[in-house]
Amino acid sequence: MVPAVSWRRLGAVAAVALGLELVYRFLRRRPPPVREVLFFPAPLVCAEPLLSPGTCCSCPLPHHTDGALSALLRRLLGARRSLELCIFTFSSPPLARTVLLLHGRGVRVRVITDSDYMAAAGSQIGELRKAGVVVRHSQSSGYMHHKFAVVDRSIVITGSMNWTQQAIQTNHENVLVTDDGACVSAYLEEFERLWEEYDPAGYCFFPKDDQNGP
């Protein structure tokens, strides 16, 4: 006959083994952390293989999906629920098409940009607005100089790079992609703060000194 103490020990060992098995299975299913650094300039490539898979494009650009720009597009195209975009100046057609594609899929897209540069030559902000993307802009004298995006409230894309053709093809730039929880929370908090600050309902179109008329 097995003593009661031995049964208890066997039960404890079995419980520990089961717990370890469950932890192991959980860790196997858990995706690896997102830690990616992209450097620019990047060679100009055709974005069609990523933006319109299966279509045939006859443009003279390379059609491979390697490189920093393609990696950035893939991260953005991975959005399923939301995209918060806070960008100083935005004139890159491939990136604009990506944002419009997400908007067309039903992803909630919100854009914050700088008031001075939103109307610069080549700016894509007007195209986004025409498509129904909600855009808010700065109202102060200082630049809204951020360059970051938050994908599905879980991945931050940030760095030195504006979303312009010059930045992508010519400048030395860096982009960091991470799902670190503390970083994601901080960027979301900053986005929501600016989103409220730049609410059109609070716009002041006339300086205080001019409100009383001549």
TrEMBL record:
It comes from the Eukaryota. Pfam families: PLDc_2. It catalyses: a cardiolipin + H2O = a 1,2-diacyl-sn-glycero-3-phospho-(1'-sn-glycerol) + a 1,2-diacyl-sn-glycero-3-phosphate + H(+). Residues 140-167 form the PLD phosphodiesterase domain. InterPro entries: PLD-like_dom, PLD_domain, PLipase_D/transphosphatidylase. The keyword Hydrolase applies. Keywords: Hydrolase, Lipid degradation, Lipid metabolism, Meiosis. Belongs to the phospholipase D family. MitoPLD/Zucchini subfamily. This is Mitochondrial cardiolipin hydrolase. It comes from Ranitomeya imitator (mimic poison frog). The lineage of its organism: Eukaryota, Metazoa, Chordata, Craniata, Vertebrata.
